[in-house]
Design a protein that fits this description.
Length: 330
């Protein structure tokens, strides 16, 4: 279904000659898939496109166009800046300067909270991913999507929907994924690198984290911490470590998982996941963050020990019935 703002976005894109595209810090598959999928499509349209991101996580290096990612060019001005997979300026970090120096700005986002920092914003809270929104937009507006771009968009949808298992990945999402396959997306390539190329170091790390996790509320809440020492010991990045929160959530009997990530001595990030019904977006919001009902996060300005204590106190303070499904939910 055509979004009311799409024709205006298309008009602005066609008018622009030079375009920069960027997303949030600590990028995931949806963020980089959005940058690359949109960027490669607009290049095929004949636009001068810079796909911007200072971080290049190696576990996502299989994405088509990954080697095209580049750092911010502080001496270059653009006709158009497109911000993907976030709704606030702060998480752009270095790329935030492009928002000021571009003539026009566009935002594609699927998160629950959007600050409206761009001239044009397409926000769809019910979408599985920003890649789903972009794929839908590009097809609806008649853009030619090269096979490499279709693969990048498919990867973002697949990873952000947890292989189409989240409740946001319903009929519309599945039809869009099929449309991308019709345009040359390579699902085998995505599945091989995402799910069938496990790094032994990462596998060992995940086992260690699960082994030392704390379980609250009769095992329905799993808490674990990732330290900088862990990253050094297993030679992995924080981006690679992020996936362990899904493993915790997938454990039998667990409804809610929280990963507490040590970013610095006085800097911590929280990642929350739920399995069936618990709204972790509310939890994240109580810590100053946000996200979705079953996947959310927050940033805290203190050490991991204090973060762990606060998160434990939060969950221990809830009534045990909060972790049981209501009669309506079965």
């Amino acid at each position: 279904m055509t979004h009311p703002i799409w024709p205006e976005i298309t008009r602005v894109i066609h008018q622009a000659s030079s375009i920069a595209i960027s997303g949030h810090v600590n990028p995931d598959g949806d963020c980089l898939g959005s940058i690359l999928g949109l960027g490669l499509t607009l290049e095929a349209l004949g636009k001068d496109v810079d796909m911007i991101h200072n971080e290049r996580p190696r576990h996502l290096s299989y994405l088509p166009g990954f080697d095209r990612l580049q750092a911010v060019k502080r001496d270059k001005n653009y006709d158009l800046f497109i911000m993907v997979d976030l709704g606030d300026r702060d998480r752009l970090k270095e790329a935030g300067v492009l928002l000021d120096r571009s003539k026009t700005s566009i935002n594609f986002d699927h998160h629950q909270v959007n600050e409206g920092v761009c001239d044009l914003t397409c926000q769809r809270k019910d979408a599985s991913s920003t890649c789903e929104i972009l794929g839908d937009y590009l097809i609806d507006q008649g853009f030619f999507i090269p096979p490499e771009a279709a693969t990048a968009l498919f990867a973002g949808i697949t990873t952000d929907s947890n292989r189409f298992m989240y409740d946001t990945a319903r009929a519309r999402c599945l039809r869009l994924a099929a449309d991308l396959l019709d345009r040359g997306a390579d699902p085998d390539w995505v599945y091989l690198h995402e799910y069938q190329s496990l790094d032994p170091r990462l596998f060992a790390f995940e086992g260690a984290v699960v082994d030392r996790a704390d379980f609250l509320q009769e095992g329905r809440v799993a808490l674990a911490t990732v330290t900088q020492e862990d990253l050094s010991r297993y030679s992995i990045t924080m981006g690679e470590a992020e996936g362990v929160v899904d493993i915790l959530r997938n454990l039998d009997g667990v409804e809610v998982a929280c990963l507490i990530k040590e970013m610095g001595e006085e800097s911590t990030k929280l990642s929350f996941r739920s399995k069936l019904f618990f709204n972790v977006e509310e939890v994240a919001r109580s810590f100053g963050g946000g996200g979705h009902i079953k996947a959310a996060g927050a940033s805290l300005s203190f050490a991991k020990e204090e973060a762990l204590n606060q998160v434990k106190a939060y969950f221990e303070g809830l009534d045990p019935s909060a972790f049981l499904p209501s009669e309506e939910e079965g």
